[in-house]
Design goal:
single chain, alpha+beta, Substrate Binding Domain Of Dnak, Chain:A, Domain 2, Annexin V, domain 1, 4 domains, eight-stranded antiparallel beta sheet, 27 helices, elongated
């Protein structure tokens, strides 16, 4: 309802004018209240809309993840991807609608309330003030006595001036009222009309979007009917097959012949036999593990999981024999014996044992028949010459290179897409972070420097087993939970495939260099984490599978060889009792170059510990003491001992120093605690992140000392491979070699003497070729690397 005030009436200042003014003021006050309420409701609507959009985005991301998981079903993947794109468009339209509501209602009406209504209130204050002054002047003029002329003149002059001021202000006030009454209509209608047009645009856009999507939806509806029919048919077929297999199994149970159910034969792929067997490990505990064995292509191999690379037990069946084993406690056992090692296995029944023995014997006969013309190659393979090193080492290297390494790494959750931009099918990796990368992101990571990221190709480079297992322990999902913990909270946009390189580079630097999205833990959270890791380490230490062995692990079975003068070379076992002083004595107690190629673990009884020399015990039981201060370095310290790579990666992301020293625990470092934990992969992770392999504790012992004292052969190999100083002495003037000799650990004594011999042969042979390049492919170097890698691979296999 429009309320106007007449200008003529305001000059009279009549009761009718005063009544109109009171009505206007009441209307304006009520208008202000209603507008304030409307603005607050608009703000609430916008906030609720933003929350709805955020939840809707998560829902759409869930649809995208489901589409990515359904890559093998093209119909589901393409349909879900299209639906996710359409719903994302609707979210964008909703965002535009709420932005328009912000501009048209909240901002515009707030401006009207703050500007125009404020001017009205100021004009009202001036009008009320001058009205009071006019009333006072009228009263004073009426009270002036007739006989006092000067008072009469003064009262008359004041009244005249007050009336002039009142007329001026009341006219301005009435003008402000009339302008406000006119403007309120245009402002309210303008804001609401703009808001309604925003709704119109929103629904038009949604209608157009789903009109384009409608043909696809109709097509999927038709396909859905056919899918229901096909599913019913497949169900009937599977029920029929189930019934047939069940009847077949019942007949085999009746005939008491279970061999056909327990193994498979696939002649097309060269598989003579495959099935589950129990395998006795070659460690000191002689544990039995159930593995999937296969006789294929003249080889006996086994796997723990289907995606794992097969472990070759016998590379050439022509070099081995098979026999029953009746002299052990377990039933149905048989043994496959090769010139270098033996493998004890157990079947589930006597018929299965006979079937496996017959299959091995048939495969041996077939191999001799099919490859009878390759006797020259067989002689080369069974000899102990230097050339046998290459033929024996190549298959193992190939199994860790190219597609096999790629498949193993991509099988980890989150690794099928680039960790930083989401590009599918990454072919590169950062080995110190444990993530997969596309080619563009890998180039950016290289530019950061190796102190932030070490990049390697998943298809072109050769992958050592310990490095491959390190990649499988982490993965994109684990690392992104650490380095992107606050990304959504900060509103940072993650790059998408096809984004400009400079945007991706800025995001990667913010993520890994500045660590902007890492969630910093509170002191209480850090304390809880450290205490939890220390308790976890105690539980693991109490498990006999992870405790250091009471006796050294089995000694590699080395073939007797001859040195250059024709004299026989002593075995490593005999060399334990000799002094480590002098290169001549060391060379005499170390296997020759020819025998190095055939050095593999054998099933030999563990060497007894001398009664006069008890094995050293650096830290058999770790006790957690309340530290003076909790820090990321302390978290890395205990996580290394607890073998928790995700917690170690989290500590490094929070700024932990990889060579952090625990002054309250004899200056031990995380790498020393990783040795105590017994995990080779944990040591590899720290070394890849620039851990000092020679840093010593308060006793003067480095990681190599501790690995030797605990009998961790694989770790000793790893540290020697990474340049550990085996001549370093502790405060008792003991080297790792003297410690190993005292403990009668034949494996570690042999390894340390091989390393020392290799160093001396480098100096004797000359490490540089004529071109000035270091000759890393010399026979001595290749034999040494192969021997080291076999011990590392053995410990990784046994840690399964």
């Amino acid at each position: 309802m429009k309320i106007t005030v007449d200008f003529e009436e305001c000059l009279k200042d009549s009761p009718r004018f005063r009544a109109t003014i009171e009505e206007v003021e009441g209307d304006v006050c009520e208008l202000e209240s209603k507008l304030d309420k409307l603005v607050k409701l608009c703000i609430g609507m916008i906030d609720a809309g933003k929350a709805y959009n955020a939840a809707n985005k998560q829902f759409v991301n869930g649809i995208r993840e489901l589409a990515q998981q359904s890559t093998k079903d093209e119909v589901i993947e393409s349909s879900l991807t299209k639906f996710a794109e359409s719903l994302q468009e609707m979210i964008n339209y909703h965002t535009i609608l709420f932005d328009q509501a912000q501009r048209s209602i909240k901002t515009q009406l707030q401006t009207f309330v703050k500007d125009d209504l404020r001017k009205f209130k100021e004009a009202k204050k001036q009008f009320d003030k001058v009205s009071e002054e006019k009333e006072t002047a009228l009263i004073k003029n009426a009270q002036a006595p007739r006989n006092k002329q000067h008072e009469v003149e003064e009262a008359t002059n004041i009244l005249t001036a007050t009336r002039k001021c009142f007329r001026h202000i009341v006219l301005d006030y009435v003008l402000q009222i009339n302008v406000l009454q006119s403007k309120r209509r245009s402002e309210i209608l303008k804001s609401m009309l703009s808001f309604m047009y925003a709704h119109l645009t929103f629904f038009h856009q949604g209608y157009d979007l789903f009109s384009e999507l409608q043909p696809l939806m109709k097509q999927l509806g038709g396909q859905l009917d056919q899918l229901v029919v096909d599913a019913a048919k497949e169900k009937r077929d599977m029920e029929q097959k189930h019934s047939t297999i069940q009847q077949k199994a019942a007949l085999q149970d009746f005939s008491n012949d279970d061999t056909k159910l327990e193994y498979n034969v696939d002649t097309d792929n060269g598989i003579a036999m495959e099935g589950y067997l129990f395998k006795r490990a070659s460690n000191a505990f002689k544990t039995w593990n159930r593995r999937w064995f296969t006789i294929q292509n003249n080889q006996l191999v086994y796997q723990k999981k289907f995606k794992d690379n097969p472990t070759v037990v016998v590379e050439d069946l022509r070099l081995c024999t098979v026999k029953h084993c009746e002299d052990i406690e377990r039933r149905f056992c048989f043994e496959v014996v090769s010139p270098t090692k033996s493998c004890m296995m157990q079947a589930d029944s006597e018929k299965l044992r006979q079937a496996w023995i017959k299959a091995v014997q048939n495969s041996i006969a077939t191999a001799f028949r099919d490859k009878g013309d390759d006797s020259e190659k067989l002689d080369r393979k069974s000899s102990t010459s230097t050339g046998s090193l290459d033929s024996g080492g190549e298959p193992k290297e190939r199994s860790l290179k190219g597609e096999s390494a790629l498949q193993k790494v991509l099988a980890i959750p989150g690794n099928v897409c680039c960790c930083d931009c989401g590009q599918p099918e990454p072919r590169w990796a950062s080995i110190n972070l444990g993530i997969t990368l596309c080619i563009q992101c890998s180039g950016i990571h290289r530019s950061l420097g190796v102190h932030f990221s070490k990049v390697r190709s998943l298809t072109l480079d050769t992958w050592e087993p310990e490095l491959l297992k390190l990649m499988c322990e982490l993965g994109n999902k684990v690392i992104n939970q650490i380095y992107e913990a606050r990304r959504e909270e900060l509103g940072a946009r993650k790059p998408q495939p096809g984004d400009p390189r400079h945007e991706v580079e800025a995001y990667i630097k913010a993520k890994y260099v500045d660590r902007r999205f890492v969630r910093r833990p509170s002191d209480e959270e850090l304390r809880s984490k450290v205490v939890s890791l220390s308790k976890q380490e105690k539980r693991l230490s109490g498990n006999s599978e992870h405790m250091p062995p009471k006796a050294p692990p089995p000694t590699p079975k080395l073939r007797p060889g001859s040195n250059a003068s024709g004299q026989s070379v002593k075995s490593a076992d005999s060399g334990i009792q000799n002094s480590a002083d002098g290169s001549r004595e060391m060379l005499a107690t170390t296997p020759s170059n020819d025998s190095l190629a055939d050095a593999e673990p054998a099933e030999t009884p563990p060497m007894p510990m001398p009664a006069t020399l008890p094995p050293p015990s650096p830290c058999k039981e770790m006790v957690f003491y309340e530290p003076k201060e909790y820090s990321p370095g302390l978290q890395l310290y205990w996580a290394s001992c607890a073998r928790s790579l995700p917690d170690m990666a989290e500590a490094l992301a929070h700024g932990a120093e990889v060579n952090w020293v625990n002054t309250e625990e004899e200056k031990r470092t995380p790498l020393i605690m990783a040795v105590q934990g017994g995990s080779l992969v944990t040591c590899e992770f720290l070394l890849q992140n620039a851990a000092n392999v020679n840093q010593q504790d308060a006793q003067g012992r480095g990681p190599l000392h501790h690995a030797t004292m605990l009998g961790h052969t694989g770790q000793v190999c790893l540290f020697l491979k990474r340049g550990a100083n085996q001549n370093a002495t502790d405060i008792e003037e003991k080297t790792p070699l003297s410690i190993a000799v005292e403990a009668a650990n034949a494996d570690i004594v042999t390894l340390l003497r091989l390393a020392k011999m290799n160093e001396e042969m480098r100096e004797a042979e000359g490490p540089y070729s004529q071109s000035g390049q270091y000759n890393s492919n010399s026979p001595t170097e290749m034999q040494y690397r192969k021997c080291m890698q076999e011990f590392i691979s053995l410990q990784l296999d046994e840690s399964e």
